[in-house]
Amino acid sequence: MTLGGGCLILFMDIRFAEHIYFLHHPVAGGTTHYVWHKLVPSKTSLFTWCLLQDRIPTKSNLVRRRVLQPTHNMCVGRCGNIETTDHLFIGCNVFGSVWYLLCN
Predict the structure, then answer these.
(1) In-domain check, residue 14
(2) Which domain holds residue 47?
(3) Is the pTM of this model over 0.70?
(4) 3-state secondary structure of 89
């Protein structure tokens, strides 16, 4: 596996595998070995773990926790979509290009 251009694809593959795994095995985690690998910096592991558990403070999560009003959940990229973890890291046209540039 190479870093660079393939890191976004790797993330999407891990995210997709996580969803499929939890559909069939809701108790155990499927990507724990990769997230907490000894060669991955701990801050990266922690961020990735929070990301996979949908614990990143996106606007939709802040609305759910009643930190923000329900009308303030739109993406900061002004693309017109609700700001969720999946949207920010995979689906947003604005921030998707940022992740693409970081991966190359």
Answers:
(1) yes
(2) 7-103
(3) no
(4) helix
Asked whether residue 90 is domain-assigned, the answer is yes
* Rounded Cα gap, residues 70 and 42, in angstroms: 34
Report the SS3 class of residue 82: strand
Q: What DSSP element (H or E) covers 9? A: helix 7-24
Scored b (16 or more CB within 10 A) or e, 12-51 reads eebbeebeeeeeeeeeeebbeeebeeeeeeeeebeebeeb
72, part of any domain: yes
Enumerate residues 6+ apart whose C-beta is below 8 A from 22.
Answer: 30
- Residue 2 domain flag: no
Query: Could you say which DSSP state residue 104 is in?
Result: -
Note the pLDDT tens digit of each residue in 50-88: 888 889 999 999 999 999 999 999 999 889 999 998 888
DSSP label at 27?
A: S
How far is Cα of residue 42 from the mean position of the Cα atoms in its chain?
A: 17
Cα 76 from Cα 63, distance rounded (Å): 14
